[in-house]
Specification:
A 4-stranded parallel sheet has the order 2-1-3-4, with helices on both faces. Helix 1 crosses helix 4. Helix 1 links the parallel strand 1 and strand 2. The chain is of the alpha/beta class.
């Protein structure tokens, strides 16, 4: 079993948790830890306590951080360096979080290490690029399909006598 923790700079974690709740509903064994500038001195103790509570209650912890190398990530990694049952993901986004949470809800026995693998797999498909060229190609394909359909309809109509009404 795993406890999930979401953390990041400013209101990142609260905002992402709010979006997650819209999609997944309430999530069990899930905590949000914000990192605001005026709380910087207390953050290491806060994240350590949240991680330790998660370990005590669930046996393993997966921490999602907004970015690798930031204070939330670094403080979480300091805890992970002391316990193999703590996993840390840097660079979380909503698709990664949704995929991981749905897997967690489906099988609550999954440890943090398995959920971290799910998160990393989701990361490889959660970012994509579109541009005017690729968007235009999709529109062009639709236009060709519509044009072909119009040609086919016209050809069919030519075979019907106008006075006959096609009946």
């Amino acid at each position: 079993m795993a406890h999930l923790i979401l953390t990041g700079h400013g209101n990142f974690a609260k905002g992402l948790a709010s979006a997650l709740k819209m999609v997944a509903g309430n999530v069990d064994a899930f905590s949000v830890v914000t990192f605001n500038q005026d709380e910087a001195a207390d953050f290491p103790d806060t994240i350590e306590k949240t991680i330790n509570d998660g370990l005590q209650n669930q046996g393993s912890v997966l921490v999602f951080c907004d970015l690798k190398g930031g204070t939330p990530f670094n403080c979480s990694m300091m805890q992970a360096a002391q316990n193999e049952n703590i996993e840390v993901i840097g660079g979380v986004n909503l698709p990664i979080l949704i995929e991981t949470v749905f897997s967690h809800q489906t099988d609550t026995a999954l440890p943090a290490s398995s959920l971290a693998e799910i998160a990393m797999n989701a990361a490889s498909t959660s970012i994509f690029r579109e541009n005017k060229g690729s968007f235009g190609n999709a529109l062009q394909t639709e236009a060709i399909d519509a044009s072909e359909a119009a040609d086919a309809a016209e050809a069919a109509a030519e075979g019907v006598d106008e006075e006959d009404d096609g009946i």
